[in-house]
Design a protein that fits this description.
This protein is of the alpha/beta class and about 375 residues long. It has 13 helices and six strands. Pfam families: CTD6.
Length: about 375
């Protein structure tokens, strides 16, 4: 009599946050890499491929409330769960199965993963995802692609494999196998699909991560927004600092933004600072869509490091301190930043006012 096959257990998934990709520290190449994105991806490690899939998911699912990693002791590769609601696995979600294999994916690769999602659902770990997509640099072989293109045939193939007394399905006990069969028979297998690498790269190209990952020129920067007539709330602190500097320079007057026109030289100076501030804001907003999160903040940090010693030195007047800091900001070597190729002199001065908005730079020296 044959020994009973060992039951294969599928533990509950362990969900962990996906870290944002690191901020690039090297200048972005104007000509791009010698290898195409598809060629570079061939040499990725599984972790790099997972990072790429995480970035790609941002492009295909702007409505996702969270994108998380699915992990378990029996889970090989990097499965990514993209939740459409704040209910996580209890609400609608998509599952992206990232397989960085050196070969085409075949049925023998796909069946265990499809089985796993049904077993996990039967065991109550999650509801079935709305979409279950395979992503592999080499893509799927002809046979698997044909099955994924015909959901009815895919379900029939799955049920046949599920009933086999050999392979991974044979390790399931009879009760669990019956429950999986019942669920599969009522499931629309159109949820299973593959994502071609060329399509994944095209979608990734629309994200803020593409240039940092693959090189090439940054998207064209739109013209900077001129300073509006009315002073906005976003300007409150740096404008207050400028007013303190102006009052020190002209102690006999009661200067404020709406009375500054009585001092034409200071009024012209104030307008230049506002234009610089909005130039930097324009760069910040462009960076949000063109480069990974944190890139612009890294530029701000380097500007701060380049001027802080001057800002904290002794100066005859606060206006002298302000002027020397602004001049120094235009001379800092920022060639290591991806945004250098599209930044301007006014951006650097404006970043100083952004820092003043946060009191990271102050123009008036505190009384000892």
């Amino acid at each position: 009599m044959n020994a009973r096959p060992t039951v294969q257990h599928y533990p509950a998934p362990v969900v962990t946050e996906l870290e944002a990709p690191p901020v690039p520290s090297a200048p972005t190449s104007i000509t791009g890499p010698r290898l195409t994105p598809a060629q570079l991806i061939t040499f990725y490690s599984p972790d790099e491929w997972e990072d790429f899939i995480r970035e790609w998911a941002v492009a295909v699912g702007e409505a996702y409330s969270q994108i998380k990693r699915l992990g378990g002791s029996n889970d090989k590769g990097a499965d990514v769960a993209a939740f459409k609601t704040d209910r996580g696995f209890e609400g609608e979600w998509d599952c992206f199965q990232a397989k960085h294999y050196a070969k085409l994916l075949g049925w023998s690769d796909a069946f265990p993963e499809i089985l796993k999602i049904f077993v996990g659902t039967v065991n109550g770990h999650y509801i079935l995802p709305s979409v279950y997509a395979f992503l592999s640099p080499k893509g799927c072989g002809t046979g698997l692609n044909r099955l994924l293109s015909k959901p009815t045939d895919l379900r029939q193939k799955f049920l046949e494999e599920l009933g086999s007394d050999k392979g991974v399905a044979a390790s399931l006990d009879a009760s669990l196998r019956d429950q999986v069969r019942t669920l599969a028979e009522t499931t629309d297998f159109a949820m299973f699909r593959s994502v071609e690498l060329v399509d994944a790269i095209a979608a990734h190209r629309t994200t803020a991560y593409h240039v940092a990952r693959f090189g090439g020129p940054l998207p064209p920067r739109p013209p900077a927004t001129s300073a509006p007539r009315e002073i906005g709330e976003v300007e409150a602190r740096y404008v207050a600092q400028l007013m303190d500097v102006y009052r020190e320079a002209n102690p006999t007057g009661s200067l404020a933004p709406d009375t500054l026109h009585t001092e034409p030289r200071l009024a012209a100076h104030f307008q230049r600072q506002r234009e610089s501030f909005y130039a930097a804001e324009s760069l910040r907003l462009h960076a949000r869509d063109a480069v990974p999160p944190g890139t612009f903040e890294a530029l701000q940090d380097d500007v701060h490091s380049g001027v802080i010693e001057i800002a904290e030195a002794d100066h005859a007047t606060s206006m002298t301190r302000l002027t020397q800091v602004l001049q120094a900001s235009t001379q800092i070597d920022l060639s290591a930043h991806a945004l250098t190729t599209i930044s301007r002199t006014d951006d650097r001065k404006g970043i100083c006012h952004q820092l003043a908005n946060e009191d990271r730079l102050t123009w008036m020296r505190a009384d000892p």
